[in-house]
Amino acid sequence: MRILLNDTPIQLATNCTVAELVQQQQLKTEGLAVAINNVVIAKQYWSKHQLQNNAQVQLFQIVTGG
Amino acid sequence: MLHIANKSFSSRLLLGSGKFANPSLTQQAIQASGCQLVTLALKRLQLDQPQDDLLSPLREMNIQLLPNTSGAKTAKEAIFAAELAREALQTNWLKLEIHPDPRYLMPDPIETLLAAEQLVKLGFVVLPYCSADPVLCKRLEQAGCAAVMPLGAAIGSNQGLQTRAMLEIIIEQAKVPVIIDAGLGAPSHAAAAMELGASAVLVNTAIAASQDPVAMAGAFAQAVNAGRMAYNAGLAETQSHAASSSPLTDFLAAL
């Protein structure tokens, strides 16, 4: 299946969860937040939430700021 | 002690983490300032760039992290950013800021109040950056904000307490901590804010953009302490005429 990851199309195996996507992308989970189709997904649901075909996944990270 | 929501802080200086030349300098400045509350921001992850590890040192220092909603132009965007920040840092503390205009970065009072009302209901500890408007600050307090953060001057402008007269009214009326945020450009500005009775100040640019941010962080820490001590000691009243502090007797009249 295909998803949009921060606007970039990528191919994924079916039944991929948010947690698996984060792992595949080798991302540090601390300071990371995920939204799918503009809905924030709580960290506790990352391992349960399965991505759907054409999902728009947005990743955000904590940075410095005032 | 500074009490915000259910937490107490011995430092009345909050630090913004932006604009430092590198993460090590940020960390050293935080240590030199003695601050216990540090603001952070959010951005979209750049997949082709490595993630900075700025959080580990802050966690080790036992700092209360205060993510902001900078970049939000509406209440709806701010609430989305707040939910992201809560997940990213696992904290419900939030610096709410909504400033649609990039030139002056003035906070939008209407969107800020709308967002504050909803965020409080969603369980956030909301610290809103806002105009130095006594009525707005009262409304934000009534909405359940844990503090109010009126501006001294435009963000990053280093102009000091341009809003002084309004801040005095806000401080007089507030039942939640008043944290003067934005525009403080020198330790003397921070001291003046504390002498007015502000509960705390938030400083970023004046420290981060100084020639020696670590030394400047220490200078701000001392100024905040001095200002608070002066407030607690009670300033002597100003007079329109001279009032001698030495005896004006006529002991030289015989000459």
Automatic annotation (TrEMBL), chain A:
InterPro entries per record: Beta-grasp_dom_sf (IPR012675), Mopterin_synth/thiamin_S_b (IPR016155), Thi_S (IPR010035), ThiS/MoaD-like (IPR003749)
Short name of one Pfam family: ThiS
Entries under PANTHER family matching the protein: SULFUR CARRIER PROTEIN THIS
CDD domains (alphabetical): Ubl_ThiS
UniProt-recorded name of the protein: Sulfur carrier protein ThiS
Cited SUPFAM superfamilies: MoaD/ThiS
NCBIfam families: thiS (TIGR01683)
Highest taxon above the source species: Bacteria
From TrEMBL, chain B:
Residues noted as binding 1-deoxy-D-xylulose 5-phosphate in the record, renumbered to the chain: 156, 182-183, 204-205
Biological process (GO), any one: thiamine diphosphate biosynthetic process
Keyword Cytoplasm: yes
Known catalytic reactions: [ThiS sulfur-carrier protein]-C-terminal-Gly-aminoethanethioate + 2-iminoacetate + 1-deoxy-D-xylulose 5-phosphate = [ThiS sulfur-carrier protein]-C-terminal Gly-Gly + 2-[(2R,5Z)-2-carboxy-4-methylthiazol-5(2H)-ylidene]ethyl phosphate + 2 H2O + H(+)
Highest taxon above the source species: Bacteria
Keywords, in A-Z order: Cytoplasm, Schiff base, Thiamine biosynthesis, Transferase
Protein EC: 2.8.1.10
Pathway listed: Cofactor biosynthesis; thiamine diphosphate biosynthesis
Listed GO CC annotations: cytoplasm
Active site (catalytic residues): 95 (schiff-base intermediate with dxp)
Compartment list: Cytoplasm
GO molecular function, one term: thiazole synthase activity
Keyword Transferase (UniProt): yes
CDD domains the record matches: ThiG
Domain annotation Thiazole synthase ThiG: ranges: 4-247
Gene3D superfamilies: Aldolase class I
Predominant subcellular localization, coarse grouping: cytoplasm
Family indicated by similarity: Belongs to the ThiG family.
Function: Catalyzes the rearrangement of 1-deoxy-D-xylulose 5-phosphate (DXP) to produce the thiazole phosphate moiety of thiamine. Sulfur is provided by the thiocarboxylate moiety of the carrier protein ThiS. In vitro, sulfur can be provided by H(2)S.
Oligomeric form and interacting partners: Homotetramer. Forms heterodimers with either ThiH or ThiS.
Protein name: Thiazole synthase
Source organism per UniProt: Rheinheimera pacifica
Lineage per the UniProt record: Bacteria, Pseudomonadati, Pseudomonadota, Gammaproteobacteria, Chromatiales
